[in-house]
Specification:
Elements: E1 10-12, E2 15-17, E3 22-29, E4 37-45, E5 48-57, H1 65-76, E6 83-89, H2 94-99, H3 123-136, E7 141-146, E8 152-154, E9 157-161, H4 166-179, E10 183-187, H5 200-205, E11 211-215, H6 224-240, E12 255-264, E13 269-273, E14 280-281, E15 286-291, E16 297-302, E17 307-313, E18 317-318, E19 323-330
Parallel strand pairs: 5-6, 5-7, 7-11, 9-10, 10-12
Antiparallel strand pairs: 1-2, 3-4, 4-6, 8-17, 9-11, 12-19, 13-15, 13-18, 14-17, 15-16, 17-19
Helix pairs in contact: 1-6, 4-6
Bound molecules: zinc ion.
Zinc ion (ZN) is lined by residues 59-60, 63, 146, 149.
Length: 340
């Protein structure tokens, strides 16, 4: 751009910011085959050019820590001191947030499994489509901020997705370290077809943009440590990318988790968890019992390998096929970053 050119506004939905401005607005998701919604966003634009970081809160509507954290992050953004921009999606899934829904929207779909979405689909698919077009296509880096859902207890960690694009994967690994959480799950199993990216962060990655998914908190709580992790993590990313000065929170070396498994409910029933997040388990350790409504045992669920509990469903209702717990095994080695 020549020095004389006037930089165009950066627009996300109705939020439009020129250099040095902070704008609030909405991403409209119009009515379609079912009721639409609108997503509250902030665009904070620095006075100098630079990377554009998208921070996405509330993909799952019963996960509140990120929603609270982004309100705090917004108050820390000073465009006069910024390069590039930050796009804050304060609430990616209002139908789930205001409806207090766990996992699934009113259409029965999980927003974080329907990317890149469809303009003519049900509301979760239309939200994904709008976020892909308005946010993912406009950012250079992205963090999707989660916690255990309303029924899940969770230890803080970041997912580093290895996509096979070495340059993007290195960028994502640096974001994972810059978020400051001390456990990083290496995930090599996400889809690699951009037309079936399924997850928010994977959609960005398959479009060439480094991205992470971060987890802190759970069970519908807004406890200070869990909210603070996301606040510090978001500010850590802004500092890492040179968008906003701030104290680094990089953890080096973190604990790398290179094998994970989601244990799923073999039947619908009443779940009695026997472990808590962060607990170390041996192969064969009882993770929980599934009973019928009268209390008779249906299944005992045991750890398939030695590792730690990343998250566990901590409330009784479970349906066949749903997650019961996520286990991770700690990578061998000295903590040096694994190659992409
Ligand atoms: Zn989530």
């Amino acid at each position: 751009m020549s020095a004389a050119a006037t930089p165009a506004a950066l627009s996300v939905g109705t939020a439009s910011a020129r250099p040095g401005e902070v704008a609030a607005g909405w991403i409209e998701v119009p009515d379609g085959v079912d009721a639409g919604t609108r997503l509250p966003v902030t665009v904070a634009r620095g006075v100098r050019p630079g990377p554009i970081l998208a921070l996405v809160a509330g993909t799952h509507g019963y996960e509140y820590t990120s929603v609270v954290a982004l309100q705090r992050v917004r108050g820390r953004l000073d465009p006069a001191r910024m390069a590039g921009a930050a796009i804050l999606v304060h609430m990616a899934n209002p139908p789930c947030f205001y409806g207090r829904r766990v996992y699934y929207g009113p259409d029965g779909k999980n927003l974080n499994r329907v990317y890149p979405g469809r303009p003519d689909g049900t509301v979760s698919e239309r939200i994904a489509h709008a976020l892909t077009r308005e946010v993912i296509d406009r950012c250079t880096h992205l963090a999707d901020m989660h916690c255990g859902d309303g029924n899940e207890a969770c230890r803080p960690y970041v997912y580093w997705v290895v996509s096979g694009n070495a340059e993007v994967d290195r960028g994502s690994r640096e974001l994972a370290l810059a978020y400051g959480l001390d456990h990083i799950v290496i995930d090599r199993g996400r889809p690699r077809d951009p037309a079936r990216s399924l997850y928010t962060s994977n959609t960005a990655i398959l479009r060439g943009k480094p991205a992470i998914t971060a987890e802190s908190g759970g069970l519908g709580a807004t406890d200070e440590p869990s909210v603070g992790n996301h606040e510090r993590g978001a500010l850590g990313l802004l500092a890492h990318l040179g968008i906003l000065d701030g104290p680094p929170v990089r953890v080096d070396p973190p604990v790398w988790i290179d094998r994970t498994e989601v244990l799923r409910a073999p039947a619908t029933g009443v779940w009695h968890a026997a472990v808590v997040p962060m607990q170390a388990v041996a192969a064969g350790t009882l993770v929980g019992r599934l009973t019928d409504p009268w209390g008779a045992r249906l299944h005992e669920v045991r750890a398939p390998f030695a590792g730690i509990v990343l998250y566990v469903v901590a409330t009784p209702p479970v349906s066949e096929g749903e997650p019961l717990a996520g286990l991770g095994a700690i990578a061998a080695g000295d903590g040096a970053p694994p190659a992409p």
